[in-house]
Design a protein that fits this description.
8 helices, 6 strands, 3-stranded antiparallel sheet, 3-stranded parallel sheet, 14% strand, alpha/beta
């Protein structure tokens, strides 16, 4: 809140913002603690750990992460697969469907590859069967994407993807009951395209949104010859 007011040109101290929020009965939402839930797929081909829990990138399209989660609706579960870019936290690819499948995971990757130059990028995901199935892994090599996996059943080995799901759960899913999968899909799309990527501020990005952070980085790059 303090960062948003300062960005609008309002001269206000953090202490005053805290005092006014207390007086109005306002408080920030709290994120859940991550839990390790993934079960390793049987007969999966080994993939090296190219990250070793160092979720850092010096420019876009160096390190992507991926994961799948369930979204509850009155009609049943909606599955959401996402591909955030570690550099800016921007969600560069996503897909939604009724089931958690390798095709869904691949669809999220396809969207990211269509939008971004990913040659040589490290792509980090967990040991779930959606990411070890041939329909998914066969998409990585032709795109020159380097696959990476960590340990089994530890949320910290895919912490960046878990962090995004904790954010969307806290800021959208727990606050908005959805009657149908279609309603949930529309709400998630609006959250991603209308708020998270263009507006949602991150302390790790100097209180800029993912889009703002990438634009600021691009402004520092030399012009092409």
């Amino acid at each position: 809140m303090h960062a948003a007011l300062r960005a609008e040109g309002r001269a206000v101290s953090r202490q005053r913002v805290e005092r006014l929020m207390r007086a109005l009965g306002l408080q920030g939402v709290h994120r859940r603690h991550p839990r390790g839930m993934t079960r390793a797929a049987r007969n999966a081909q080994p993939v090296p750990d190219r990250v070793e829990r160092r979720f850092e990138a010096c420019e876009p399209n160096c390190l992507w992460v991926a994961d799948i989660t369930y979204v509850t609706t009155q009609e049943g579960f909606l599955s959401l697969a996402t591909v955030p870019d570690v550099f800016s936290r921007k969600v560069v690819g996503w897909a939604m469907g009724a089931r958690q499948t390798a095709v869904l995971a691949r669809s999220a990757l396809d969207m990211a590859l269509q939008a971004r130059a990913a040659q040589g990028a490290i792509f980090r995901f967990d040991h779930g069967s959606q990411f070890t199935a041939l329909v998914f892994t066969s998409r990585c090599e032709p795109a020159s994407v380097l696959q990476s996996m960590g340990g089994v059943g530890s949320c910290y080995d895919n912490a960046m993807a878990e962090s995004f799901f904790a954010t969307i759960e806290c800021e959208l899913l727990r606050r908005t009951p959805f009657a149908t999968r279609e309603e949930a899909a529309t709400g998630i799309f609006r959250f991603l395209e209308g708020f998270y990527n263009p507006q949602r501020r991150h302390s790790a990005l100097g209180h800029l949104s993912p889009n703002e952070f990438e634009r600021a980085w691009e402004a520092t790059q030399p012009a092409p010859a």
